[in-house]
Amino acid sequence: MKRQLLLFAIYACFAALAQAQIEGSCMAQGGRAALDKLFEQELSFPAVALEAGFKGEVVIASSLAPDGSVKSIKVAKSLSLECDQEALRLARLLLWRPGTAGEMCSSSEIFLAIPFEPGKYKRWLKDRLPRTGERFGLPADTSLAVLSPKQLDAQVAPLIPGGMAGLPAYIGKEMRYPNEAMRYSLEGTVKAEFVVEPTGSISNMHVLQSVGGGCTDEALRLLYRIPWQPALKDGERVRSVLQVPIRFDLPKQRE
Question: Where does the chain have alpha helices with state H?
Answer without folding.
Answer: 2-22, 31-42, 47-51, 81-92, 118-127, 167-174, 179-183, 215-225
